[in-house]
Amino acid sequence: MELRARELAKDFSRGRSRRTFTAVRPVDLELEAGTLTVITGRSGSGKSTLLSMLAGMLTPTAGSVMVGEENLYALGEAERSRLRNRRIGLVPQGHTALRSLTVLENVLLPAVLYGRAEPPQQRAEELLEAVGLAELREARPSELSGGELRRMAVARALLLQPRIVLADEPTAGLDGENTVAALELLREAANAGAAVLVVTHESEADRFADRAFTMGGGSLSPQADQPS
Ligand SMILES: Nc1ncnc2c1ncn2[C@@H]1O[C@H](COP(=O)(O)OP(=O)(O)OP(=O)(O)O)[C@@H](O)[C@H]1O
């Protein structure tokens, strides 16, 4: 088991009255090596909140996240971020490119942060090829479309062949062909042994999944027609 969440929940206090709003109700979820899990759900159902907690980016109100033998939120900030860099490839929500770097340098960023002596240049180029961005390798993020930036983020998350891949709307803004290419790449990462989670409102993702869940009103439930 690469990642295990137990009774993971998140409340926010919202508005001027600071009233408590429950974004994620206690969730149990296990991500296994070699498996692609998809969570679909409508906007506002709590998908990103759940993924951020699994990624060690958002402290839960209750519950735990185990990454291997480590309890993520029992670690200090620095240790948690080290574990995240080592184990988790994250495709965060929105655009997170560094504007001063080229596309290729952005994809290589995890290697720089991880302190690799030799940046895996060839792998970065192969990933850019796989997401159809080979010709834009020297471009700046400001020259890319929203969909191209999403594809770059997928390539970056997979650079160091992480054991866990957490992708928040990896296909947002992509056309049909690029959606399939991005999902195929995530599928390949699972086939190569990673535990992959994709959260999306793209139903197309289901056909790449080993397990599919639906999120609604902060609760996670297995999809009725589980892919076999
Ligand atoms: N920092 C915050 N403070 C208060 N409320 C928040 C905060 N972050 C998220 N929420 C609320 O929690 C709920 C779930 O948000 P979340 O972003 O997890 O949904 P989502 O399913 O990922 O939606 P989308 O598909 O639109 O990204 C929303 O109603 C949102 O308003």
TrEMBL record:
CC annotations in GO: plasma membrane
Residues annotated as signal peptide: none
Pfam families tied to this protein: ABC_tran
Keywords assigned: ATP-binding, Nucleotide-binding, Transport
Domain ABC transporter: 3-228
Keyword Nucleotide-binding among UniProt keywords: yes
Record-level Gene Ontology MF annotations: ATP binding; ATP hydrolysis activity; transmembrane transporter activity
The protein's name: Abc transporter
